[in-house]
């Protein structure tokens, strides 16, 4: 009986060792992956930005490794003219980390776009999943929201924004809003440096009507549509 027990114990031990061996992850596999499946990519309004995406390898080798990178068009909504993505990324010798530098310009970003990246197929290379860059506009200075509420003649409205020196930052002439529906709202986000600004609303017919609302980090500045005839101004300071 004692001999049978010893034999059974030896068999169970051998079986356990074989099971453990089956669960060991093999070392030395040529495997690479992106740092994550998603990446928040902010682009300064009216400018361009470069962001670094980290590439990880499962092991280190004594020579540089070049990995192919592709843009997945089916998962990309960004304008092709707005981004620059290298076709390869290098993982230096004796390292398991590489850096992919992607540049995106503020071209047709609007409410947000995506850029999906994948590793290209290479013999002997195992790869992780794709990464999706969520591209959005960001303001590095002061974000100001301008909202106009038209009367029944939006084609008469225009405006001018000037800085403290009197220089025009931007302007819209009468007729620019001809396609806007009567009584509709129009808005846009401005990105302005610190300083004092004057916003002037104009009416080409001389009977006013378009209301103005300017929202800054410190409050709301308004011009009522019935408070002027040809033009009216409001001054605000940032920040």
* CATH class category name of the largest domain: Mainly Beta
Overall shape: it is elongated
| Uncertain ranges | 1-26
Note the total helix count: 1
What does this protein structure show overall?
The protein starts with a helix and ends with a strand. Strands 5-7-3-1-9 form a five-stranded mixed beta sheet, with no helix packed on it. It is built from one helix and 18 strands. The N terminus is likely disordered. With 239 residues, it is mainly beta. Strand 12 and strand 13 form a beta hairpin. The chain folds into two domains: 108 residues, hypothetical protein (bacova_03559) (Immunoglobulin-like), CATH 2.60.40; 97 residues, Sandwich (Lipoxygenase-1).
Layout of helices and strands:
Blueprint: H1 2-23, E1 31-34, E2 38-44, E3 48-57, E4 65-71, E5 83-84, E6 88-91, E7 97-105, E8 113-119, E9 126-127, E10 131-138, E11 142-149, E12 157-162, E13 168-172, E14 185-192, E15 195-203, E16 211-216, E17 219-223, E18 231-238
